[in-house]
Amino acid sequence: MAGGGFPLSLMINRKLLDFDFEKICSVTLSPLNCYACLTCGKYFQGRTEGTPAYQHALHHEHLVYLNLKTLKAYTLPDNLEYNDSGQLDDIRAVIRPKFDSALLKDIDERRSPLSDLQGRQFLPGFIGLNQIKANDYVNVILQAFAHVRPLRDDFLLNFSGKQGGLGEAFKEVLEKIWNPTRFKTQTSPHELLQAISTASSKRFSLVKQSDPLDFMIFLLNTLTKECSIVNELFQGRIRIDSCDISQAKQAIDGEMKVDFKPFYFLSLDLPSKPLFADPRNPTAIPQVNLTSLLEKFNGGNFTYKQTTASAYSIQKYPKYLILHVNRFIKNNFVLEHNPTIVQFSPNSLTLPSQEMTDSPVYNLIANVYCSFPNDEDKNLKSFGVHVKCPATDSWLEIENLTVRETQAQMLFMSESYIQIWESAE
Q1: Which pLDDT tens digit goes with each residue over 127-176?
Q2: Helices (H), 61-122
Q3: What is the spatial distance between Cα 174 and Cα 361, in angstroms, rounded to a whole number?
Q4: Integer angstrom CA distances of residue 337 from 211, 287, 384
């Protein structure tokens, strides 16, 4: 009971609690010995006399605090441990949710939405990520990889990487995205963005937009050092037959240089933009079928770069195949954008197979796309993602905080940039 005779639980305002941001004292900016005021939601350091938490309790009569590391509750300024008898377990579950196989199975099979403290509905796993400034390129990759179920399960159930590393921060974002007991229908990747900035030596930041492909490559390479499942899920093997361009048509096996290399993604080259618009339909956008772009990897077509001709064939397809549509090409002056629409069906994509008897079949689970809010300025682009909800056999479009349902037949109408396909086997 508080000094006025009313229960301390009445001082706890869950609607003001936000545990998405960096857990540092709002006064000293120190992460050490940090507590959350359960009345106003602010973070303060210490419990003893003279500390920011003590002063806040004294001046504002906010009495209940939670240690953000131990999750123990205390009353201030008395500096006594608060025996909440489980009353704060829902708050602890928001800060540090716990998962097991049964819970994840229940989440994956859930067809009806849950409600947050404001009564807004959400499905765990399909929530918005805050655009703090220019981090949409990070958000779409996080959303896409959050729906690679074996990757999610391994991080939520088995991850034991180093503390303070990028892997731990990635795990915490997955916990927030898939937490069924969350207080809000959106979350913020603020702490992960800080870890990304540090791990990349500030190459990637929240204030400057980068290429989602560059960030994805960095994320996969970094996570590989902390978690072996990344290679198990995404790494394939490709054969490259190359020769001089002048010898390409006459080259035989003995004259070709043969290399075998691992890959995390396949890059697809779009046809060049036409120099002149069709006078009968000047606003028409070129279109190409995804299967025709994949013919690059059937082993029988040469790709020309500078003085080298190369033919590619897949020796080993991964469980999860990542495709990159090469829309942005740097020339000597500007970054050129190719708006060609890539047509595809999200189900039963058959891949070229020269070396294997059976052609592998894949189903789409995530489609990262780019858009241009200002048609007159192609440097101002934004990124969103379509993700599959298997329980309802539906697709949701997520663009930062916005989550809305979309039709599978309409996915190809966006400018697909990165796709993740799951093997049907």
Answers
A1: 999 998 899 999 999 999 999 999 999 999 998 877 778 999 999 999 99
A2: 89-95, 101-109
A3: 28
A4: 13, 14, 17
Q: Which value, in Å, is the radius of gyration of the alpha carbons in the chain?
A: 26
Identify each DSSP E strand in 46-109 by its residue range.
64-67, 73-75, 80-81
φ, ψ (nearest 5 deg) of residue 78: -65, -25
CA gap 227, 304 in Å, rounded: 36
The 8 Å CB, 24+ separation contacts for 244-253 are 244/307, 244/308, 244/309, 245/304, 245/307, 245/308, 245/309, 247/309, 248/302, 248/304, 248/309, 251/309
Decide if 297 contacts 352 (C-beta within 8 A): yes
Determine the residue type at 243.
C
The pair phi, psi for residue 252, each rounded to 5°, is -120, 170
As a whole number, mean pLDDT of residues 84-104 equals 94
pLDDT of residue 300: 79
Asked, as a colleague might, if the bond just before 77 is cis with ω within 30 of 0, I would say: yes
Which residues, other chains included, contact 305 with Cβ-Cβ below 8 Å and sequence gap of 6+? none
Mean of all residue pLDDT scores within the chain: 89
Beta strands in 188-297 (DSSP E): 236-244, 257-263, 265-269, 287-289
Q: What is the pLDDT of residue 254?
A: 52
Q: Where are the alpha helices (DSSP H) in 270-394?
A: 290-293
- Segment holding 45, helix H or strand E: strand 43-45
Reading phi first (left if > 0) and then psi (alpha if -120 to 50, else beta), residue 253 is in alpha
Contacts of 152 (CB under 8 A, 6+ apart): 104, 146, 174, 178
* 96 secondary structure, DSSP code: S
